[in-house]
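Deliverable D5.2: sample structural annotation.
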Amino acid sequence: MDQVPTPLVDWLRAQDDDTLAELVALRPDLGVPPPADVTVLATRAAVRASVHRACDDLDTVTLAVLEALVVADADRESVDRAELVRLLGPDLPAAVLGAALDALRARAVLWGPDTELSVVPAARDVVPRHPGGLGRPSSGLAGSSALSELLDELEPDERRVLDVLAAGPPIGRSRGDSHSAVGRLLARGLLLRVDPDTVELPRQVGLALRGDRPLGTVAVTAPDIGARDRGTDVVDGTAAGAALGVLRQVELLIAFWSRTPPPVLRSGGLGVRELRRAAKEMDVDETTAALLIEITLAADLVGDTDGVPPEWVPTTAADVWTAGGPELRWSLLARTWLALPRLPGLVGRRDDAGRPVSALSDGTRRPLAPRDRRRVLAGLAELPPGTAPSSPAALADLLAWRAPRRGGRMRDEVAAWAIAEATVLGVVALDALSTPGRALLEDPDEIVASLRAVLPEPVEHVLLQADLTAVAPGPLVPELARELDLVAEVESAGGATVYRFTETTIRRALDAGRSAADLHELLVKRSATPVPQGLTYLVDDVARRHGRLRGGAAAAFLRSDDEVLISEVLAHPAAAACELRRIAPTVAVSPLPLAELLDGLRAAGFSPAAEGPGGAVLDLVDRGRRTSPARRAPQRSLPPEPDPTQLAALAPGCARATPSPPCAVVPPTGAPAPSTHCAVPPSATSPSGSVSSTATAWRASGCWSRSAWAAAWWRAATRRTAACCACRCTVSPPSGSWRTEHVED
């Protein structure tokens, strides 16, 4: 933790409640746990990790101003605003500079009037390693008044070396001898030797060579996004088609994994071969397949089983989801994608260890992915409805200018992935945010209504074609959709779905209990065109051959060489309960399990025996089932975000709080007294006492939070130094119990 300059504490103490409330709202980590007074608040405001978080949302101009403050060493001594104007050059308007300074002040990264600007020491860790592309200051000739004369006397080869280093970075590698250009510059003090292989350009030389723009050109204005009007109706219509398509693709995935569930890799995730099979089944590329698979798992439509080996299979929630309307089903997928803490775009790449990242594995886990998706959608939402940027790269450039520190090394790729994934789902169409996508971002309660408004009205008819296909000119009513899914298969999905009739699909409908007359009635009633003769012949031909052979299910059989005994059993009232049916003079079958059938016959007074495939008697005594325990990883959730309203309410109390008077630590009788003091409450008893019994008194003292108090007691109990977070005086307790007494000023 960095030492806090006293002026920051004084400056915070002089601010009003509204300013402190804004500070805590902009930097919520400063209010957790609630600070006891301004001293604690200032201490936290200078912590390196907190300063990094506070600067993550700063735009390019504000970060350039912070970099100029570091170049001016404002973390060591206060600087004047005029020095910033000189460093940033004439291109930065005064109003823009003032707004950047206000943004830094609001976050307590900068404080003081324009004539005495200071920044926290941790600001040096926020800027690049070489702020402004400049080296360290020199105390030699480069830092003296003779610098201009030395630069005028440079040879052309020496000037070229300095110009290259002045453009940045200021570090170069050279082993030049004393007669080379680098050697002569080192001799004059215009270069500094870092090690035998490295030289550095002093800061004064770099500033002198750069002229009136010491820190280069600052991008004052945001990049032009190049907005283009796509048309709201066109965007929404395209998005509606994509939404219907993705619903069909997820249905195909659920049906495919219901028939042939893929295994779970030993390392977790889905194998490459299984991903390719799923992509082929859904008729999409592997990238889209990975996205849909990740969403279905997050939506609990699929899950891994507890079997050995485990498999990826649909869950019972998938049946409920399939039975819903398209608006409800799409709403679940879209909301799941927006909150998905994973990056499906990483599938197929290699991790830091060189291993390929597989779908559904931990390699795609990124807790900050939802925040980055929202930033992309929010950038599109700023444009008028139906308007798109010139390209996804233009939007990525705009987001990078607004928050250069957000997104990490994959910042631009994450933005491109977000737009591509949103396009697959129909949240974005033609690079513009659709009406359902805008509702997803701004008002989730309106998602269903907004999608219903852009979807075409359900139709109750199809167009039968002579090539044994049927074209649905729009989404079908649920009843007709179910019947067509039974009697035909989807050949292509989208705004207009094409169904194909085959011998297999007709047989499937007959197996489901439909008769040839039922199918003819369906085709005549639901077709807006005459039924082709070829389709009629196909239905009749399949129906004529269907059912000539019959098969049934039987879980157990009952046989006896005595036909009379079989007849006696069938005539007994227990036969009905056992659901026995005679299929031969000496054989009867039942759908009941064998053990249940034998128990029913024994209750009726018969003495049957169980036999195996070879005729040997079986022992059916139930010894119980055995299964390996499921070892599921515990679900981890992100900590809830602090409520800005509650955090802002802490500011007035923090501003009014004053450090408590010190309390003397009094040892027990005969024990040596410690030599230092600390602001501890009068009710503390001993290191072995209960934390909860004295926590209220510690908080009432205005110095310690409960967590800090507990940590101090632990350090004291283990004979380590206990430090007060407000006054920072220390206590080294002696052995034995100890108590505290309040010391009046």
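Annotation notes: The CA atoms of residues 389 and 579 lie 70 Å apart. The chain is about 45% helix and 10% strand.
The annotation will be released with the project's public dataset once the embargo ends.
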